[in-house]
Amino acid sequence: MNMKKLTLLTAVLILLASCGSKDRGELVGVKGKKWHPEKPYGMELVPGGAFIMGKADDDLAGVHNAPAKTVTVRPFYMDETEITNSEYRQFVNWVRDSIIRTKLAILADEVGMTPEDGGIGEFAFKEADTANMTVYQKYIYENYTGLGPTGYEGYNLNHDIDLIFDTAEYPDEYYAEVMDTMYLPMEESYNGQRTWDVTKFKFQYTYMDIQKAAKDRSLRRKDVLLKEEVEVYPDTTVWIRDFSYSYNEPMHNDYFWHDAYGEYPVVGVTWKQAKAFCQWRTLWKNTYQKSKKGAHFVNAFRLPSEAEWEYAARGGLRAATFPWGGPYAKSDRGCFMANFKPVRGDYAADQALYTVEAKSYEPNDYNLYNMAGNVAEWVDSSYDPSSYEYMSTINPSVSDMENERKVVRGGSWKDVAYFLQVSSRDYEYADSARSYIGFRTVQDYMGTQVNSKNGKKTKI
């Protein structure tokens, strides 16, 4: 009797499901939101494809670390230029301001001040308006806010009021107390000026070690979630440390800070800082996407793999020595094609003693600037002189968490022409910063965009 009732109930449910469905019982798939990706600002589409990676001609340096190998990479977007000082300062300022606002809000809470009290109270955490929350948002707020090492995790900072940096305009002693902790001690002031204590400004993020998770399926999710904390300010002392017995103090003092160098590539950043920048750029964009109703989160910004970088640098040219073809570093009119060290150390022969603006010289056929020279660029891959022998032929990427040697590509303003070749490899340690190494980011390509005028799909 019970089996008959169960069979009848199942039949009724199937009938109801079929009657209420618009698919007429056909297999039509799950319908999601329409996907309308946008072309990332300041990036160019690298179409992807197969190419011969490595040395296409004689290995003049005799390092034998880049034998020719045919590989295929998927399409991706890449920054037109190296990340500039101005762009990196946006990251630094965001981290700095967020940390200052957090400290102000915590002190306001500790002394019991609110926006109505003025002063530091104006920077107090925003109180949650539970009346306008969804059921889920209210549940999360009531059960998870404040759980963490500081007790303030999940609270919303007040970004509606500007921070005050002029000491003459500090609103009260509490505000002055917080700001005082952000600078170096008074006894370390120089020429009457106090500077930021850059060790206080760190960016924290969490990521998943997918490679580890894939190799050991017994691991739980928490076992492969890794946390990083990275100081964000570039090391300006590289201009002094990289060159013994050389007067480079003006570059140390002005290169990152002065607006005159805003469009020049950032240097003095480690591989770890470049990775942190990618995480922040993704967070920054997706925070905006979240504010737009119905908008999709964007794919993560990241450093390119070594294969992606070389493919992009070649610009679609087969067996090319340089991004512009080659085999020479000069044009047919005798003009240098990149910023490097020509003529046995005559740095100024190419009209630049150090770096040049990121959008200088002619771009390659993918519209990418300075893929050779200016500054060398961090890539995501770990350096192994024999990696070409065992890496995959599809989207090759050699990423070893234990290997601190990370690949840099493209050569720089202080390198000879050999390092400008698209196939030349070099490396630096992940925690090292140099006056001649910068980076650019990439983002995975996910399809086409609908043209709003005619409704047709076009590649972007």
UniProtKB/TrEMBL annotation:
Keywords (A to Z) from UniProt: Lipoprotein
Sulfatase-modifying factor enzyme-like domain boundaries: 43-442
Source organism of this protein record: Seonamhaeicola sediminis
UniProt name for this protein: Gliding motility lipoprotein GldK
GO function term, MF aspect, one: formylglycine-generating oxidase activity
NCBIfam families named among the record's database cross-references: GldK (TIGR03525)
PROSITE patterns according to UniProt: PROKAR_LIPOPROTEIN
Pfam families assigned: FGE-sulfatase
Entry keyword annotation includes Lipoprotein: yes
